[in-house]
Design a protein that fits this description.
The protein is mostly beta strands. The chain is built from 6 helices and 53 strands. The strands form 8 sheets. The chain has a 27-stranded antiparallel sheet that branches. The protein has a 5-stranded mixed sheet with strand order 1-6-7-4-5. The protein is globular.
Length: 1005
C-alpha cells in the first residue's frame, strides 16, 4: 500500500502500531508501518508500549498531534474513551452521572471539536455536534488521534481539534488474535443498585496467506448509578438594586426585594442583586445497559488493492427514577433576608413568611427511559494505481436515533404537595444550600395531594451519508500532492409531544392515597459538602432543615390518580397521566445540511544543512446548504392558575405554525505546516491555518418554542436560526519537542486563535403571540390599589369582585382553585427567548501547553504530566444584567466573552514490571464560565474547579499465559461538582456521585 515516511526510534519502528491512517485513508487507520524489514522486531505492549506508540505518532506527524494507543488488543488505558482523552494536553471533559461524556480542547467546547470514527463523521441525537463517548466501549478501539493543527486534507469542523477514533483492522495485525474480558462493577453512587457485569471480546484472524481478514468485536455493559443534588433548579432572578416591591412606586418588579427593616444589609441602589426561585433536593437512580458490536471484513487480492467492509452497532438504554422535595419562593412582601456586600449582592439567607399558612411543600417523582441506537455500514477501497499514484474511496451510511424506552415516556414528572408550609428559608453560605420549611418535618403521608404533571415523549433521528475520494501523487525528487473531494449529507429529524396537566394548586383531597405508598426517607445525611447553620439569619422563619422526603411509589400514585382525576390533556392511555405518541400534534422539525468539499495539498521533505524538514501547504474549499422545516405550537391565551403559575393555552384546534427557512455559506481555508529537526531528537513546528466550526444542530433548527407554563415574571422559550454562519478562526501554532529517550520526551507549545462569527445564544425579551397577562393585568392593579399585597390576596379579591360577572374569572370545579384568564387591555406576557445569532465582535484565544513523559530507566517507573494555560480575553461582568432599556435605566452593554475556557492539568504516575502494572492518575480543571444565559435572562453559570483521582492495577497470571486480572477505581476521593451564578453563594447545582470500582479479568491470545 502507499508508503509513508516516519522518523522513529529503533524500538518504535518495530511496534505493532495503529498509526498511519488519517482522514485520507479512513478504513486503514490501524495500518502497521515497518520502515526497514531488516530491523529486529521487538514486541512491546502494556503501558510503556502504548506510550511509545503515541509518542512515535506525535513525533512523526505533519503538525501538532497527540494520541492514545491500546496497550494490547482489547485493552485500552481506560474503560471510557473520554477518561483517556483527558490525559492529553489541552483536553478536558464533561461528565454525565460521573462518567466522561464530551470533550473540550484548548478551551473550545464539544461542539467545536470534530469527532470521527475511522475518519468518518458520525451522527448524533442530542442536537449538538458533539459525540457522546459514553455510547462507545473502548475494547475495540486501537487508538485515538487528536490533531490540534489543521491540514487541507482534514475534514472541517474542529476549531479546537479533530479527534479520530480508530478501530481494529485484521490485515493490519495479521494472524489469529483474540481477547475476552469480564468485569464486575460496583458504583458507590447508587443507594439501590448492586454490582453489575461487563463482558467484552474481540476476535481477529487472517486467511489465504494474509489476503482475507475478519474482525469481530462485541461488548455488553450494565451499570447502576445514582446521584444526589441540591439545586436552585429554576435559576436566580437578577435586578438592579433600585428594584423593589413598592407597587405604588415606579421600581416594583415581581421578585424585587422590599426596602424595609426585614432586610439585613439590603443591596444599595448602585448594586445588583439576585433572588432564588426555589430550593430543591433531588435524588436519582439510573440503570444503563450498553451494547456495542463491530464486524470488519478485509480483502487484499493483490498487494496494490485492499477492500474493507465494516458495520458498527451501538445501543445504550438508560432508565431513570427520581424523587425530589422543594419549596418555591413566591416573592411575598414578608421577606426576611441577610445579604452579602455589593456590588454583586447575594442572599446569605433568603426567607419568606406566610402568615396564613397553606403554601405548598412539593414532592415530585419521575420514572422514564431512553434508548440511543446507531448503526453504520461503510466501504473502503484503497488502490495503488501506479508507483506514484495512490487512490482511496470511502463511503458510509450511518444513522442514530434517540427514542422513548419507557411506558412513562422519555421524560416524566408527577408532582404531589402538602399545603402546610408556613415559611421557607435557605442558607446559601455553604457548598450545599440548606432548606428549612416551616412545618415541613411534620408532614404526613395523608397530607399529600397530586398537583401538576408532565409526561413527555421526544425522539431524535440523525442520518449521515458521506462519500470521500482521496489521492496522492508522488513526484520524483519534488515532493507529493494530496487531493480529494467529499460530499456529506446530514438529515436531522426531531419530534416532541408533552401531556401536561397544570393543576399546580392541587386536585382531589387529602387522604386520596394509601399512606403505605409514601415511605419516608431522609435528606440532610445524603450530602457530604459543607452546609450553613443559619447563624447569619435574624428573621422569624423556621430554621429547622428539611429532612423528611417521601420516596413515594410512582406507579401506584400515577395509576390511582388516573382513576380519580380527569384532565383536558390526554395521552395514549386516555387520561392525563401517560405520554402521547401523537408527534404530529406538537413540535416537529427537520433539518438538512448538505456539504461539498475539495482540497489540494503539497508536501515536501528536504534538508537545510544537517536539519531534515518537511513542509505542507494546501487549501480546502467548503460549501454548505442548510434547509430547515418546522411545525411548532402557538398559543393565544394565558390563565393564572395558582399563586406563581400561568398556563398557556390555544383556543384553536390547529395551533401549529409551519415554516421553511434556509441558509448557506462557503469558504476557502488555507493551511501551512512546517516541521524541522534542528538537532537530533529535537523537533520545532510552526503552523498557520484557517478553520470553521459549524453551529450545533439545535441552533439551526427553525421555529420558536415556548414552555407552556410561565410565572409572574414571564415565560421562556427558544428559537433556531438556519442562516447562522460557522465560527471562523485564524490559527497559529508553535511547538518544540525533545525526544531524549525511547519512551521519554518534553514539549512546549504556544497557540493563538483569532475567532470571529461567535454564536451568541442571547436571551431576548419578546411579547410573541401578544397574549394578555392576567397576573400583571388591570384587575391586579385594582387589587393592589385596594390594599391587596400578596398574590393569594390579589387572586381572592379579583374572584370576589369579578367572579360573578366576568367569565374569565372562575373557580375550577375539579380542584377548587381560582383561575383568571387575561383580558384585552392587559399587558402581554413577556417571554425570554434564547435566540442564536452571529456576533460582530471577534476574540483572541491563546495559550501554552507544557508536557513531559519520562520513564526512569529500566526501573519500570514512569511519569506523565501536562499543564495547559488558556487566556480568553475579557471576563464576564457580573454587574451587567443584560437588561434592555427602560424609563429609568439605560440598556446594559452586550458582553463579548467566551465560555468553556479554563486551565487544565494532569499527572499520571505508573509502574510496570514483573507482570505487575499500576497507574495513578490525577486530573484537574479550573473554574470556567459555562454559559451566559438561562431561562431567567442573561445570567451566567460558572462551573467550579474540579479534580479527580483514578487508579488501575493489573497482574499477569504466570501460570496461564495471556491471563490478566485487574482492579480499577474512578473518582476514589468522591469529588463533587458545583455550579453557581453571579457569586459563589448563588448556587445553581451541587451534585454528589461517588467512586466506582471494577474487578475483572482479561484473557488474550
Amino acid at each position: 500500500m502507499k508508503p509513508r515516511t516516519f522518523r522513529k526510534t529503533r524500538i518504535a519502528t518495530s511496534l505493532s502500531v495503529v498509526l498511519s491512517a488519517s482522514t485520507m485513508m479512513p478504513a486503514f487507520a490501524a495500518d502497521e508501518v515497518v520502515a526497514d524489514e531488516n530491523i529486529e522486531v521487538l514486541k512491546v505492549t502494556g503501558i510503556r508500549g502504548s506510550l511509545i506508540k503515541s509518542m512515535d505518532l506525535k513525533r512523526s506527524s505533519n503538525g501538532v498531534v497527540d494520541a492514545i494507543n491500546a496497550e494490547d488488543i482489547g485493552k485500552f488505558p481506560d474503560s471510557n474513551l473520554a477518561e483517556s482523552l483527558q490525559r492529553i494536553t489541552g483536553v478536558s471533559i464533561d461528565r454525565q452521572n460521573g462518567e466522561g461524556s464530551r470533550v473540550s480542547v484548548r478551551g473550545f467546547g464539544a461542539d467545536q471539536n470534530l469527532v470521527m470514527l475511522n475518519g468518518r463523521q458520525m451522527p448524533v441525537t442530542t442536537g449538538s455536534r458533539s459525540f457522546d463517548f459514553a455510547n462507545i466501549a473502548s475494547e475495540a478501539i486501537s487508538a485515538v488521534e487528536v490533531e490540534k493543527t489543521s491540514q487541507a486534507k482534514n475534514s472541517t469542523g474542529g476549531i479546537g481539534a479533530t479527534i479520530n477514533v480508530l478501530t481494529h483492522r485484521p490485515l493490519s495485525s495479521p494472524g489469529l488474535k483474540a481477547s475476552f474480558g469480564v468485569k464486575a462493577v460496583d458504583d458507590t453512587s447508587t443507594d439501590e443498585g448492586s454490582i453489575t457485569p461487563e463482558l467484552s471480546g474481540i476476535y481477529s484472524n487472517t486467511f489465504a496467506d494474509g489476503k482475507f481478514g475478519i474482525s469481530i468485536s462485541a461488548s455488553y455493559q450494565e451499570r447502576e448509578s445514582g446521584n444526589q443534588q441540591a439545586q436552585v433548579g429554576t435559576g436566580w432572578r437578577s435586578f438592579p438594586g433600585i428594584v423593589d416591591q413598592d407597587w405604588g412606586g415606579s421600581n416594583a418588579e415581581w421578585g424585587g426585594v422590599p426596602k424595609d427593616d426585614n432586610q439585613i444589609n439590603r443591596p444599595g441602589e448602585g448594586d445588583v442583586y439576585s433572588v432564588p426561585q426555589t430550593t430543591v433536593y433531588r435524588f436519582e437512580e439510573q440503570q444503563r445497559a450498553r451494547t456495542n458490536g463491530q464486524l470488519v471484513l478485509q480483502y487484499e487480492p493483490i498487494d496494490s488493492l485492499r477492500a474493507t467492509l465494516d458495520y458498527t452497532y451501538m445501543q445504550n438504554d438508560i432508565d431513570t427514577q427520581s424523587h425530589d422535595v422543594s419549596a418555591w419562593f413566591n416573592f411575598v412582601p414578608t421577606q426576611e433576608s441577610t445579604w452579602s456586600d455589593g456590588p454583586v449582592s447575594s442572599p446569605l439567607v433568603y426567607s419568606e413568611i406566610y402568615p396564613d399558612g397553606g403554601a405548598d411543600l412539593s414532592m415530585a417523582a419521575g420514572d422514564y427511559g431512553t434508548r440511543d441506537e446507531s448503526g453504520s455500514i461503510g466501504f473502503n477501497l484503497e488502490w495503488d494505481a501506479t508507483d506514484n499514484l495512490f487512490l482511496s474511496l470511502d463511503y458510509h451510511s450511518s444513522e442514530a436515533e434517540r427514542s422513548p424506552n419507557n411506558k412513562n415516556g422519555s421524560s416524566s414528572n408527577l408532582s404531589t404537595a402538602a399545603f402546610i408550609r408556613t415559611s421557607a428559608a435557605t442558607d446559601f453560605t455553604g457548598d450545599v444550600p440548606v432548606l428549612a420549611v416551616g412545618g415541613g418535618n411534620q408532614v404526613r403521608p395523608e397530607d399529600m395531594r397530586v398537583t401538576g404533571s408532565v409526561f413527555g415523549n421526544a425522539r431524535n433521528k440523525s442520518e449521515i451519508e458521506q462519500l470521500q475520494i482521496n489521492g496522492t501523487y508522488i513526484f520524483e525528487e519534488a515532493g507529493s500532492i494530496d487531493f480529494g473531494i467529499a460530499a456529506t449529507d446530514v438529515n436531522n429529524h426531531s419530534q416532541s409531544v408533552n401531556v401536561q396537566r397544570n393543576d399546580w394548586g392541587g386536585v382531589g383531597a387529602e387522604g386520596d392515597f394509601d399512606p403505605a405508598w409514601f415511605p419516608a426517607g431522609s435528606v440532610q445525611d445524603k450530602f457530604d459538602g459543607s452546609q450553613g447553620d443559619f447563624s447569619d439569619y435574624q428573621g422569624s422563619a423556621s430554621i429547622d432543615p428539611q429532612d423528611v422526603i417521601f420516596l413515594w411509589d410512582f406507579e401506584a400514585v400515577r395509576a390511582r390518580a388516573a382513576e380519580l382525576y380527569g384532565s383536558t390533556a390526554v395521552g395514549d392511555c386516555g387520561n392525563g397521566f401517560c405520554p402521547s405518541t401523537d408527534y404530529a400534534s406538537d413540535t416537529d422539525r427537520f433539518t438538512q445540511e448538505e456539504s461539498q468539499s475539495a482540497y489540494i495539498q503539497y508536501n515536501y521533505e528536504g534538508d537545510i544543512g544537517d536539519m531534515p524538514f518537511d513542509v505542507h501547504v494546501g487549501v480546502r474549499y467548503e460549501q454548505t446548504d442548510v434547509e430547515s422545516k418546522s411545525a411548532v405550537s402557538s398559543y393565544d391565551q394565558a390563565t393564572w392558575i395558582a399563586e406563581t403559575e400561568i398556563a398557556l393555552q390555544s383556543t384553536t384546534t390547529d395551533n401549529r405554525v409551519f415554516q421553511t427557512q434556509k441558509g448557506d455559506y462557503d469558504y476557502f481555508l488555507p493551511s501551512f505546516n512546517f516541521n524541522i529537526e534542528v538537532v537530533e531528537d529535537v523537533m520545532l513546528r510552526a503552523a498557520y491555518s484557517e478553520t470553521i466550526g459549524r453551529p450545533d444542530y439545535t441552533s439551526i433548527q427553525g421555529g420558536t418554542t415556548v414552555g407552556t407554563l410561565a410565572n409572574r415574571g414571564g415565560g421562556s422559550g427558544s428559537t433556531g436560526n438556519p442562516s447562522l454562519l460557522p465560527l471562523e478562526s485564524e490559527n497559529i501554532d508553535f511547538s518544540a519537542e525533545w525526544y531524549y529517550a525511547d519512551a521519554s520526551y518534553v514539549s512546549v507549545g504556544y497557540f493563538r486563535k483569532d475567532v470571529t462569527n461567535f454564536i451568541d445564544n442571547s436571551p431576548v425579551n419578546s411579547d410573541i403571540y401578544s397574549i394578555p397577562d392576567p397576573s400583571n393585568g388591570v384587575y391586579v392593579q385594582e387589587a393592589i390599589a385596594a390594599g391587596q399585597v400578596t398574590a393569594i390576596d390579589q387572586r381572592q379579591w379579583i374572584y370576589d369582585t369579578y367572579g360573578a360577572t366576568d367569565p374569565n374569572v372562575t373557580l375550577n370545579p375539579d380542584n377548587g382553585n381560582i383561575e383568571i384568564t387575561g383580558n384585552p387591555g392587559d399587558p402581554s406576557v413577556n417571554f425570554v427567548i434564547n435566540t442564536p445569532a452571529n456576533s460582530s465582535q471577534s476574540s483572541v484565544i491563546d495559550g501554552w501547553e507544557f508536557a513531559v513523559q519520562h520513564f526512569f530507566g529500566e526501573s519500570g517507573f514512569g511519569l506523565q504530566a501536562n499543564y495547559t494555560l488558556v487566556n480568553a480575553g475579557d471576563d464576564f461582568d457580573n454587574t451587567n444584567l443584560g437588561r434592555p432599556d427602560s424609563a429609568t435605566r439605560a440598556a446594559d452593554a452586550g458582553q463579548n466573552v467566551l465560555t468553556n475556557i479554563s486551565d487544565t492539568a494532569n499527572i499520571v504516575a505508573m509502574y510496570e514490571d514483573y507482570g505487575f502494572s499500576a497507574r495513578l492518575a490525577w486530573n484537574w480543571r479550573d473554574e470556567f464560565l459555562n454559559s451566559t444565559g438561562n431561562d431567567t435572562g442573561a445570567n451566567p453559570t460558572y462551573t467550579e474547579e474540579y479534580s479527580q483521582l483514578d487508579f488501575n492495577i493489573g497482574y499477569d497470571i504466570a501460570a496461564v499465559e495471556g491471563l490478566t486480572v485487574f482492579f480499577e477505581g474512578l473518582n476514589i476521593t468522591n469529588e463533587n461538582t458545583r455550579t453557581h451564578g453571579r457569586s459563589y453563594t448563588e448556587v445553581l447545582n451541587y451534585t454528589q456521585t461517588g467512586a466506582r470500582y471494577s474487578l475483572g479479568a482479561r484473557y488474550t491470545f
